[in-house]
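Note to self: the last two entries modelled the partners one at a time, which told us nothing about the interface. This time every component goes in together.
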Amino acid sequence: MTTPLHIPDDELHAYLDQALPRSRCVTLESHLAACPGCRARRDATAALRDRTTLLLAQLTPERKRIPPSFEELQRRAVARPAPRFGWRDAAWAASILLAVGVGYGMRTAGPRAPSTGATERAAEVPPATPLVSASVEAPAASSESPGERTAVSFREPGLPSEDLADQVAPEATLPSPRSSEISTDTLPPETAPTAGLWRTVAWAEAGTPTGGQPPRVDGVPVVEVQVKPSRDRERETPVTVVAQQLASGQLITTIEGPVEDVWALLSRRGDGGETAGAETVRQGSRLLAVTGQLPADSLRAMVRRVNAARRVQ
Amino acid sequence: MADELEQLYQTTYQAVVRFLYRKVWDADRAEDLAQEVFMRALSHRPEKPRAWVFAVAANLARDEARAAIRRRRHLTLLSADPAGRPSAAPSADEVVEEDERQAEVRLALDSLTPRDREVLLLWDAGLSYPEIAERTGLAVGAIGTTLARARKRLVDAHARQHDDDDAAAHS
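The predicted structure of the combined assembly is written out below.
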Protein backbone atom coordinates (compact mmCIF):
# COMPACT_ATOMS: atom_id res chain seq x y z
CA MET A 1 0.00 0.00 0.00
CA THR A 2 1.42 3.38 -0.91
CA THR A 3 1.49 6.03 1.75
CA PRO A 4 -0.33 9.17 0.61
CA LEU A 5 1.57 12.40 0.47
CA HIS A 6 -0.61 13.67 3.28
CA ILE A 7 -3.42 12.06 5.19
CA PRO A 8 -6.85 13.10 3.91
CA ASP A 9 -9.34 14.62 6.38
CA ASP A 10 -11.77 11.73 6.27
CA GLU A 11 -9.02 9.30 7.19
CA LEU A 12 -7.91 11.48 10.06
CA HIS A 13 -11.48 11.43 11.38
CA ALA A 14 -11.74 7.68 10.88
CA TYR A 15 -8.35 7.21 12.53
CA LEU A 16 -9.37 9.21 15.60
CA ASP A 17 -12.75 7.42 15.63
CA GLN A 18 -10.86 4.10 15.68
CA ALA A 19 -12.66 3.06 12.53
CA LEU A 20 -9.60 2.11 10.48
CA PRO A 21 -8.12 -1.36 10.20
CA ARG A 22 -5.05 -1.90 12.31
CA SER A 23 -2.78 -2.21 9.27
CA ARG A 24 -3.91 1.18 7.98
CA CYS A 25 -3.36 2.75 11.39
CA VAL A 26 0.23 1.53 11.38
CA THR A 27 0.78 3.17 7.98
CA LEU A 28 -0.78 6.44 9.08
CA GLU A 29 1.14 6.49 12.34
CA SER A 30 4.42 6.05 10.56
CA HIS A 31 3.48 8.94 8.28
CA LEU A 32 2.43 11.10 11.22
CA ALA A 33 5.74 10.47 12.92
CA ALA A 34 7.51 11.96 9.92
CA CYS A 35 5.09 14.73 8.89
CA PRO A 36 4.61 17.74 11.20
CA GLY A 37 1.91 19.15 8.89
CA CYS A 38 -0.25 16.06 9.26
CA ARG A 39 0.39 15.97 13.00
CA ALA A 40 -0.90 19.53 13.25
CA ARG A 41 -3.95 18.58 11.20
CA ARG A 42 -4.49 15.51 13.37
CA ASP A 43 -4.46 17.73 16.46
CA ALA A 44 -6.86 20.18 14.84
CA THR A 45 -9.15 17.30 13.87
CA ALA A 46 -9.01 15.92 17.41
CA ALA A 47 -9.93 19.38 18.74
CA LEU A 48 -12.81 19.62 16.27
CA ARG A 49 -14.00 16.18 17.28
CA ASP A 50 -13.82 17.05 20.98
CA ARG A 51 -15.60 20.35 20.38
CA THR A 52 -18.42 18.53 18.56
CA THR A 53 -18.77 16.03 21.37
CA LEU A 54 -18.85 18.88 23.87
CA LEU A 55 -21.52 20.75 21.93
CA LEU A 56 -23.68 17.68 21.53
CA ALA A 57 -23.29 16.92 25.23
CA GLN A 58 -25.18 20.14 25.91
CA LEU A 59 -28.13 18.58 24.12
CA THR A 60 -28.55 15.98 26.80
CA PRO A 61 -32.00 15.85 28.35
CA GLU A 62 -32.38 16.48 32.01
CA ARG A 63 -32.79 13.12 33.66
CA LYS A 64 -36.20 13.30 35.23
CA ARG A 65 -37.08 9.67 35.73
CA ILE A 66 -35.31 6.56 36.79
CA PRO A 67 -35.50 4.19 33.83
CA PRO A 68 -37.37 0.98 34.49
CA SER A 69 -35.37 -2.15 35.20
CA PHE A 70 -34.99 -4.62 32.35
CA GLU A 71 -37.27 -7.04 34.19
CA GLU A 72 -39.92 -4.35 34.48
CA LEU A 73 -39.59 -3.65 30.78
CA GLN A 74 -40.01 -7.37 30.03
CA ARG A 75 -43.13 -7.45 32.19
CA ARG A 76 -44.55 -4.47 30.31
CA ALA A 77 -43.69 -5.98 26.95
CA VAL A 78 -45.57 -9.15 27.87
CA ALA A 79 -48.52 -7.33 29.40
CA ARG A 80 -48.93 -4.69 26.71
CA PRO A 81 -52.28 -4.72 24.93
CA ALA A 82 -52.84 -6.48 21.67
CA PRO A 83 -51.54 -4.70 18.60
CA ARG A 84 -53.88 -2.13 17.21
CA PHE A 85 -55.09 -1.61 13.73
CA GLY A 86 -53.76 1.65 12.35
CA TRP A 87 -55.88 3.80 10.14
CA ARG A 88 -52.86 4.33 7.98
CA ASP A 89 -52.95 0.58 7.33
CA ALA A 90 -56.67 0.73 6.73
CA ALA A 91 -56.20 3.55 4.25
CA TRP A 92 -53.47 1.60 2.49
CA ALA A 93 -55.55 -1.53 2.38
CA ALA A 94 -58.59 0.38 1.16
CA SER A 95 -56.64 2.14 -1.60
CA ILE A 96 -55.09 -1.11 -2.76
CA LEU A 97 -58.43 -2.87 -2.69
CA LEU A 98 -60.05 -0.06 -4.61
CA ALA A 99 -57.25 -0.05 -7.14
CA VAL A 100 -57.57 -3.80 -7.58
CA GLY A 101 -61.33 -3.50 -7.80
CA VAL A 102 -61.24 -0.68 -10.33
CA GLY A 103 -58.56 -2.39 -12.37
CA TYR A 104 -60.50 -5.60 -12.41
CA GLY A 105 -63.70 -3.78 -13.27
CA MET A 106 -62.07 -1.92 -16.14
CA ARG A 107 -60.52 -5.10 -17.45
CA THR A 108 -63.73 -7.03 -17.46
CA ALA A 109 -66.20 -4.25 -18.16
CA GLY A 110 -64.21 -2.78 -21.02
CA PRO A 111 -64.98 0.73 -22.19
CA ARG A 112 -68.51 0.89 -20.88
CA ALA A 113 -69.30 3.67 -18.46
CA PRO A 114 -69.34 2.65 -14.83
CA SER A 115 -72.73 2.25 -13.29
CA THR A 116 -73.07 4.65 -10.39
CA GLY A 117 -76.28 3.02 -9.43
CA ALA A 118 -74.57 -0.21 -8.59
CA THR A 119 -72.15 1.49 -6.26
CA GLU A 120 -74.94 2.93 -4.19
CA ARG A 121 -75.47 -0.45 -2.74
CA ALA A 122 -72.11 -0.39 -1.05
CA ALA A 123 -73.28 2.63 0.90
CA GLU A 124 -76.68 1.40 1.82
CA VAL A 125 -77.77 1.29 5.39
CA PRO A 126 -78.32 -2.35 6.17
CA PRO A 127 -82.00 -2.93 6.62
CA ALA A 128 -81.55 -5.31 9.51
CA THR A 129 -82.58 -2.89 12.21
CA PRO A 130 -86.18 -1.76 12.36
CA LEU A 131 -85.10 1.30 14.37
CA VAL A 132 -83.37 2.88 11.40
CA SER A 133 -85.07 4.34 8.43
CA ALA A 134 -82.21 5.96 6.59
CA SER A 135 -82.65 6.76 2.97
CA VAL A 136 -80.22 7.25 0.13
CA GLU A 137 -80.37 10.25 -2.14
CA ALA A 138 -79.78 9.76 -5.80
CA PRO A 139 -76.24 10.89 -6.51
CA ALA A 140 -76.82 11.96 -10.09
CA ALA A 141 -77.63 15.60 -9.36
CA SER A 142 -74.69 16.13 -7.08
CA SER A 143 -72.17 18.73 -8.20
CA GLU A 144 -69.60 17.47 -5.79
CA SER A 145 -66.24 16.59 -7.20
CA PRO A 146 -65.87 12.89 -7.65
CA GLY A 147 -62.86 12.65 -5.38
CA GLU A 148 -64.56 14.06 -2.33
CA ARG A 149 -66.25 12.16 0.40
CA THR A 150 -68.83 14.05 2.37
CA ALA A 151 -69.67 13.18 5.91
CA VAL A 152 -72.85 11.33 6.50
CA SER A 153 -75.36 13.35 8.47
CA PHE A 154 -75.79 10.88 11.26
CA ARG A 155 -75.17 11.68 14.85
CA GLU A 156 -72.19 10.01 16.38
CA PRO A 157 -72.66 7.35 19.00
CA GLY A 158 -71.44 8.79 22.25
CA LEU A 159 -71.37 6.88 25.48
CA PRO A 160 -71.22 3.16 25.23
CA SER A 161 -74.28 2.67 27.37
CA GLU A 162 -76.50 4.53 24.95
CA ASP A 163 -78.38 2.85 22.22
CA LEU A 164 -76.52 3.38 19.00
CA ALA A 165 -79.55 2.84 16.88
CA ASP A 166 -81.42 5.52 18.77
CA GLN A 167 -78.75 8.02 17.89
CA VAL A 168 -79.09 7.65 14.18
CA ALA A 169 -81.04 10.42 12.55
CA PRO A 170 -84.19 9.31 10.82
CA GLU A 171 -83.09 10.85 7.55
CA ALA A 172 -79.57 10.56 6.25
CA THR A 173 -77.88 11.88 3.17
CA LEU A 174 -75.21 9.57 1.94
CA PRO A 175 -72.22 10.78 -0.02
CA SER A 176 -72.10 10.81 -3.75
CA PRO A 177 -70.33 7.70 -4.84
CA ARG A 178 -66.86 8.46 -6.00
CA SER A 179 -65.82 7.30 -9.40
CA SER A 180 -63.09 5.33 -7.70
CA GLU A 181 -65.73 3.44 -5.79
CA ILE A 182 -66.54 1.40 -8.85
CA SER A 183 -66.25 -1.84 -7.07
CA THR A 184 -66.31 -5.42 -8.04
CA ASP A 185 -69.97 -5.56 -7.23
CA THR A 186 -70.54 -4.31 -10.78
CA LEU A 187 -69.08 -7.53 -12.07
CA PRO A 188 -71.12 -10.54 -12.97
CA PRO A 189 -70.59 -13.27 -10.39
CA GLU A 190 -68.61 -15.51 -12.71
CA THR A 191 -65.96 -12.83 -13.24
CA ALA A 192 -65.40 -12.18 -9.55
CA PRO A 193 -61.76 -12.20 -8.47
CA THR A 194 -60.25 -15.49 -7.60
CA ALA A 195 -60.05 -16.87 -4.11
CA GLY A 196 -57.41 -15.32 -1.88
CA LEU A 197 -58.03 -11.74 -3.01
CA TRP A 198 -60.11 -9.18 -1.21
CA ARG A 199 -63.41 -8.38 -2.86
CA THR A 200 -65.46 -5.27 -2.29
CA VAL A 201 -69.06 -6.29 -2.39
CA ALA A 202 -72.43 -4.64 -1.95
CA TRP A 203 -74.11 -5.15 1.37
CA ALA A 204 -76.91 -7.11 -0.24
CA GLU A 205 -74.40 -9.53 -1.75
CA ALA A 206 -72.18 -9.75 1.26
CA GLY A 207 -74.30 -12.35 2.93
CA THR A 208 -74.34 -14.83 0.12
CA PRO A 209 -70.84 -16.24 0.21
CA THR A 210 -70.42 -15.97 3.95
CA GLY A 211 -73.49 -17.89 4.96
CA GLY A 212 -75.02 -14.97 6.85
CA GLN A 213 -74.63 -11.21 6.87
CA PRO A 214 -71.26 -9.92 8.00
CA PRO A 215 -71.25 -8.60 11.54
CA ARG A 216 -71.44 -4.84 11.83
CA VAL A 217 -72.58 -2.18 14.28
CA ASP A 218 -76.31 -2.02 14.03
CA GLY A 219 -77.84 1.23 12.87
CA VAL A 220 -74.79 2.90 11.36
CA PRO A 221 -74.54 3.21 7.57
CA VAL A 222 -72.25 0.81 5.85
CA VAL A 223 -69.86 2.42 3.39
CA GLU A 224 -67.89 -0.61 2.32
CA VAL A 225 -67.95 -4.35 2.71
CA GLN A 226 -64.89 -6.41 1.90
CA VAL A 227 -64.65 -10.16 1.87
CA LYS A 228 -61.57 -12.34 1.59
CA PRO A 229 -61.35 -16.12 1.72
CA SER A 230 -59.58 -17.33 4.80
CA ARG A 231 -56.12 -18.84 4.64
CA ASP A 232 -57.86 -22.07 5.45
CA ARG A 233 -59.85 -22.17 2.26
CA GLU A 234 -61.15 -25.67 2.79
CA ARG A 235 -63.22 -24.58 5.72
CA GLU A 236 -64.85 -21.81 3.67
CA THR A 237 -64.48 -19.32 6.44
CA PRO A 238 -64.01 -15.89 4.90
CA VAL A 239 -62.82 -12.77 6.63
CA THR A 240 -65.26 -9.88 6.42
CA VAL A 241 -64.43 -6.23 6.93
CA VAL A 242 -67.37 -3.85 7.21
CA ALA A 243 -66.58 -0.14 7.23
CA GLN A 244 -69.23 2.16 8.65
CA GLN A 245 -69.30 5.91 8.93
CA LEU A 246 -70.43 7.80 11.99
CA ALA A 247 -72.08 11.20 11.95
CA SER A 248 -68.72 12.84 12.64
CA GLY A 249 -67.31 11.30 9.49
CA GLN A 250 -65.16 8.87 11.49
CA LEU A 251 -64.98 5.35 10.24
CA ILE A 252 -65.41 2.28 12.35
CA THR A 253 -64.52 -1.11 11.03
CA THR A 254 -65.91 -4.44 12.10
CA ILE A 255 -63.68 -7.37 11.24
CA GLU A 256 -64.75 -10.96 11.64
CA GLY A 257 -63.01 -14.16 10.67
CA PRO A 258 -60.68 -16.93 11.79
CA VAL A 259 -58.53 -15.77 14.69
CA GLU A 260 -55.25 -15.84 12.78
CA ASP A 261 -56.64 -13.87 9.84
CA VAL A 262 -58.14 -11.15 12.00
CA TRP A 263 -54.99 -10.90 14.10
CA ALA A 264 -52.95 -10.65 10.93
CA LEU A 265 -55.04 -7.64 9.92
CA LEU A 266 -54.97 -6.07 13.36
CA SER A 267 -51.26 -6.58 13.87
CA ARG A 268 -50.32 -4.66 10.76
CA ARG A 269 -50.18 -1.47 12.72
CA GLY A 270 -47.90 1.45 11.91
CA ASP A 271 -44.78 2.25 13.87
CA GLY A 272 -46.16 5.47 15.12
CA GLY A 273 -48.54 8.26 14.41
CA GLU A 274 -52.20 8.15 15.22
CA THR A 275 -53.51 4.64 15.43
CA ALA A 276 -57.07 3.53 15.85
CA GLY A 277 -58.13 1.55 18.85
CA ALA A 278 -59.37 -2.00 18.55
CA GLU A 279 -61.47 -4.20 20.80
CA THR A 280 -61.90 -7.89 20.17
CA VAL A 281 -64.09 -10.78 21.27
CA ARG A 282 -63.12 -14.37 20.59
CA GLN A 283 -65.64 -17.11 20.00
CA GLY A 284 -64.06 -20.49 19.42
CA SER A 285 -61.75 -20.27 16.44
CA ARG A 286 -63.18 -16.97 15.26
CA LEU A 287 -62.41 -13.46 16.30
CA LEU A 288 -64.55 -10.38 16.11
CA ALA A 289 -62.95 -6.93 16.22
CA VAL A 290 -64.24 -3.39 16.09
CA THR A 291 -61.68 -0.71 15.33
CA GLY A 292 -61.92 3.05 15.15
CA GLN A 293 -60.59 6.23 16.66
CA LEU A 294 -62.98 6.16 19.56
CA PRO A 295 -62.60 5.71 23.31
CA ALA A 296 -61.84 2.15 24.29
CA ASP A 297 -65.06 1.79 26.28
CA SER A 298 -67.12 2.85 23.27
CA LEU A 299 -65.38 0.28 21.11
CA ARG A 300 -65.83 -2.33 23.82
CA ALA A 301 -69.56 -1.62 23.98
CA MET A 302 -69.78 -1.87 20.20
CA VAL A 303 -67.97 -5.17 19.99
CA ARG A 304 -70.19 -6.60 22.73
CA ARG A 305 -73.26 -5.41 20.88
CA VAL A 306 -72.09 -6.83 17.57
CA ASN A 307 -71.18 -10.10 19.25
CA ALA A 308 -74.60 -10.34 20.91
CA ALA A 309 -76.32 -9.68 17.56
CA ARG A 310 -74.12 -12.29 15.91
CA ARG A 311 -75.12 -14.92 18.45
CA VAL A 312 -78.80 -14.13 17.85
CA GLN A 313 -78.21 -14.57 14.10
CA MET B 1 -30.94 -13.18 23.19
CA ALA B 2 -32.58 -11.83 26.34
CA ASP B 3 -29.13 -11.48 27.93
CA GLU B 4 -27.86 -9.63 24.88
CA LEU B 5 -30.86 -7.33 24.95
CA GLU B 6 -30.49 -6.79 28.66
CA GLN B 7 -26.85 -5.85 28.22
CA LEU B 8 -27.79 -3.56 25.36
CA TYR B 9 -30.47 -1.96 27.51
CA GLN B 10 -28.03 -1.36 30.36
CA THR B 11 -25.35 0.11 28.11
CA THR B 12 -27.37 1.89 25.44
CA TYR B 13 -30.60 3.12 27.02
CA GLN B 14 -29.27 6.59 27.85
CA ALA B 15 -27.70 6.88 24.40
CA VAL B 16 -31.06 6.06 22.83
CA VAL B 17 -32.76 8.67 25.05
CA ARG B 18 -30.19 11.28 23.98
CA PHE B 19 -30.53 10.28 20.35
CA LEU B 20 -34.31 10.64 20.56
CA TYR B 21 -34.14 13.85 22.56
CA ARG B 22 -32.06 15.45 19.82
CA LYS B 23 -34.82 14.67 17.40
CA VAL B 24 -38.02 15.27 19.39
CA TRP B 25 -36.68 17.90 21.84
CA ASP B 26 -38.80 16.67 24.70
CA ALA B 27 -37.09 14.83 27.54
CA ASP B 28 -40.17 12.98 28.75
CA ARG B 29 -41.19 11.96 25.28
CA ALA B 30 -37.66 10.81 24.51
CA GLU B 31 -37.76 8.52 27.55
CA ASP B 32 -41.18 7.16 26.60
CA LEU B 33 -40.02 6.46 23.08
CA ALA B 34 -36.78 4.85 24.26
CA GLN B 35 -38.77 2.45 26.44
CA GLU B 36 -41.06 1.74 23.52
CA VAL B 37 -38.02 0.96 21.37
CA PHE B 38 -36.71 -1.60 23.85
CA MET B 39 -40.13 -3.16 24.37
CA ARG B 40 -40.38 -3.62 20.62
CA ALA B 41 -36.91 -5.13 20.62
CA LEU B 42 -38.13 -7.63 23.23
CA SER B 43 -40.99 -8.59 20.94
CA HIS B 44 -39.02 -8.68 17.69
CA ARG B 45 -35.75 -10.18 18.93
CA PRO B 46 -33.72 -8.57 16.13
CA GLU B 47 -30.52 -10.19 14.88
CA LYS B 48 -28.48 -7.01 15.12
CA PRO B 49 -30.12 -5.41 18.12
CA ARG B 50 -27.96 -2.29 18.44
CA ALA B 51 -28.42 -1.13 14.87
CA TRP B 52 -32.08 -2.21 15.02
CA VAL B 53 -32.74 -0.20 18.17
CA PHE B 54 -31.44 3.00 16.59
CA ALA B 55 -33.28 2.34 13.34
CA VAL B 56 -36.57 1.97 15.22
CA ALA B 57 -35.73 4.99 17.38
CA ALA B 58 -35.16 7.07 14.24
CA ASN B 59 -38.48 5.89 12.79
CA LEU B 60 -40.36 6.66 16.00
CA ALA B 61 -38.76 10.09 16.16
CA ARG B 62 -39.79 10.78 12.57
CA ASP B 63 -43.38 9.76 13.31
CA GLU B 64 -43.27 11.81 16.48
CA ALA B 65 -42.16 14.86 14.53
CA ARG B 66 -45.06 14.43 12.13
CA ALA B 67 -47.50 14.04 15.02
CA ALA B 68 -46.01 17.16 16.64
CA ILE B 69 -46.68 19.13 13.47
CA ARG B 70 -50.30 17.95 13.54
CA ARG B 71 -50.56 18.86 17.23
CA ARG B 72 -49.12 22.31 16.59
CA ARG B 73 -51.70 22.89 13.87
CA HIS B 74 -54.38 21.81 16.31
CA LEU B 75 -53.02 24.08 19.03
CA THR B 76 -52.99 26.97 16.59
CA LEU B 77 -56.70 26.46 16.20
CA LEU B 78 -57.14 26.41 19.95
CA SER B 79 -54.94 29.43 20.57
CA ALA B 80 -57.97 31.61 21.19
CA ASP B 81 -58.58 29.58 24.33
CA PRO B 82 -56.77 31.33 27.22
CA ALA B 83 -56.68 28.08 29.21
CA GLY B 84 -54.62 26.50 26.49
CA ARG B 85 -51.84 29.06 26.71
CA PRO B 86 -48.69 28.09 28.54
CA SER B 87 -48.00 29.90 31.76
CA ALA B 88 -45.51 32.72 31.55
CA ALA B 89 -43.83 31.99 34.84
CA PRO B 90 -40.38 33.60 35.00
CA SER B 91 -37.47 31.20 34.88
CA ALA B 92 -34.33 31.35 37.01
CA ASP B 93 -31.33 32.99 35.34
CA GLU B 94 -29.45 29.72 35.27
CA VAL B 95 -32.30 27.99 33.56
CA VAL B 96 -32.53 30.76 30.99
CA GLU B 97 -28.81 30.64 30.28
CA GLU B 98 -28.88 26.89 29.97
CA ASP B 99 -31.83 27.12 27.62
CA GLU B 100 -30.01 29.71 25.52
CA ARG B 101 -26.91 27.55 25.31
CA GLN B 102 -29.00 24.58 24.27
CA ALA B 103 -30.88 26.65 21.74
CA GLU B 104 -27.64 27.78 20.10
CA VAL B 105 -26.41 24.22 19.72
CA ARG B 106 -29.79 23.09 18.54
CA LEU B 107 -29.89 25.76 15.86
CA ALA B 108 -26.42 24.80 14.76
CA LEU B 109 -27.45 21.15 14.60
CA ASP B 110 -30.60 22.02 12.68
CA SER B 111 -28.50 23.87 10.10
CA LEU B 112 -26.86 20.60 9.02
CA THR B 113 -28.29 18.59 6.19
CA PRO B 114 -30.49 15.71 7.40
CA ARG B 115 -27.90 13.16 6.31
CA ASP B 116 -25.00 14.90 8.03
CA ARG B 117 -27.08 15.33 11.16
CA GLU B 118 -28.15 11.70 11.21
CA VAL B 119 -24.60 10.42 10.78
CA LEU B 120 -23.33 12.75 13.49
CA LEU B 121 -26.06 11.77 15.94
CA LEU B 122 -25.60 8.07 15.26
CA TRP B 123 -21.87 8.41 15.80
CA ASP B 124 -22.42 10.31 19.02
CA ALA B 125 -24.85 7.60 20.11
CA GLY B 126 -22.02 5.09 19.88
CA LEU B 127 -22.63 3.32 16.59
CA SER B 128 -19.65 2.11 14.59
CA TYR B 129 -18.93 3.19 11.03
CA PRO B 130 -20.35 -0.06 9.55
CA GLU B 131 -23.48 0.29 11.71
CA ILE B 132 -23.97 3.89 10.62
CA ALA B 133 -23.42 2.86 7.01
CA GLU B 134 -26.05 0.14 7.31
CA ARG B 135 -28.52 2.51 8.91
CA THR B 136 -28.02 5.40 6.46
CA GLY B 137 -27.32 3.51 3.26
CA LEU B 138 -23.95 5.22 2.84
CA ALA B 139 -20.77 3.33 2.01
CA VAL B 140 -18.58 2.67 5.04
CA GLY B 141 -15.83 4.64 3.32
CA ALA B 142 -18.11 7.68 3.09
CA ILE B 143 -18.79 7.87 6.83
CA GLY B 144 -15.46 9.52 7.63
CA THR B 145 -16.03 12.12 4.94
CA THR B 146 -19.56 12.79 6.15
CA LEU B 147 -18.48 13.04 9.77
CA ALA B 148 -15.62 15.38 8.88
CA ARG B 149 -18.03 17.69 7.08
CA ALA B 150 -20.77 17.45 9.74
CA ARG B 151 -18.40 18.20 12.62
CA LYS B 152 -16.92 21.20 10.86
CA ARG B 153 -20.32 22.58 9.91
CA LEU B 154 -21.70 22.12 13.42
CA VAL B 155 -18.80 23.92 15.04
CA ASP B 156 -18.81 26.69 12.41
CA ALA B 157 -22.58 27.17 12.63
CA HIS B 158 -22.41 27.29 16.41
CA ALA B 159 -19.59 29.87 16.30
CA ARG B 160 -21.62 32.01 13.90
CA GLN B 161 -24.67 31.66 16.11
CA HIS B 162 -22.66 32.69 19.13
CA ASP B 163 -21.16 35.68 17.28
CA ASP B 164 -24.60 36.79 16.11
CA ASP B 165 -25.94 36.61 19.67
CA ASP B 166 -23.01 38.62 20.99
CA ALA B 167 -23.46 41.23 18.26
CA ALA B 168 -27.17 41.49 19.06
CA ALA B 169 -26.42 41.87 22.78
CA HIS B 170 -24.00 44.74 22.15
CA SER B 171 -26.09 46.60 19.60
